[in-house]
Write a structure and sequence with these properties.
The protein has 11 helices and 10 strands. It has 394 residues and is α+β, with helices and mostly antiparallel strands. Helix 9 runs antiparallel to helix 10. The radius of gyration is 22 Å and the shape is globular.
Length: 394
Amino acid sequence: MEFRFSPQEEAFRQQVRDWLGEHLPKNWTGDRMPRSGDYETLNVYVQFAKQLAKKGWVAPHWPQQYGGLGLSVIEQLIFNEEMAYANAPIGYSAIGVGWAGPTIIVYGTEEQKKTHLGAITNAETMWCQGFSEPNAGSDLANLATRAVKDGDDYVINGQKIWTSGAHYANWMILIARTDPEAPKHKGISYFLVNMKTPGISTRPLIDMMDNHAFNEVFFENVRVPRDCLLGEENRGWYMATTTLDFERSSIGGAVGASKMLEDLVAYTRETKVNGHALAAETRVRVRLADAAVEAELGRLLSYRVAAMQARGLVPNYESSIAKLFNTDMQLRMARAGMEIMGLYGQLGHTSKWVPLRGRFERQYLWQTGLAVGGGTTEIQKNIIAMRGLGLPRG
């Protein structure tokens, strides 16, 4: 078995690194996220997406006929690694490229593909995901949002929650119940909804970092044209699971942890306590060694998912293992950093005294929520137990 990347793949990695060296925004640290009304930071994300679009790199793994470059799975892995390592501002296109677009490619009509895929790869539209509801999180099929057919339209009423970027997005992928009499997994349909449609309103949800990324979205008699239905009516659950499979196949978390570890090691070497560097203390060296092993294991688990995809296999519980481990690993990494830094590591990112711009404190707060996003820890363990180990349900 060959564990190394090929010379062509390594050349592509260097190409991405060189491009990032020239096109990353000046003084960009990756710590900023656009708040409501923060159009200056949002513009950084938009302009970077436009630069990627000129290179054909918004969705380089997509087929060429849909605006991509047809990169291999491994080349896409390398691309994602380098973007994550550089903390590049790629959030503008993340949902469109990672979830909405691939689902449209699989299930969309030619007109839907023509309307949406080029707009995504040209960085003209931002997407959000309308799946979760107040009473339908991990049990997503319990959703209550209704879509009732009325002539050539569907009239949508209900509420979505934890909707990332809804206050800026142009379009939403939405699942709603179209047949209340059917079993709950079989009466759901999948829609592509213009966020400017009358009757849609958003309300901010402020997280522990005092950051506005999430929203509640309300639908009051929202009329959506019939041609915004994706695939067959009442078959939306199966499309939603396709979207979630795309969501759970990411390397970004493992690479982000490796970058954090590098920064933490440099900090311990440069910071003196009682006349010696922090890195000279046994307790610190042990924590760093543990973190290094975990970061490498997280990357290898993600490589396993990519390697299966490259062979034409469909990773299922393997993706859940990678997601579960990397989510927990990044939380442990952030906690280790704060403990090594002492009380200074717990200061907020706006304090002039906090080390490394408060990245570890912010990551700890952010990562706590990611144990829920993309499927809770309990859901991932159930998938691993039943599909990976063959254990019975219940």
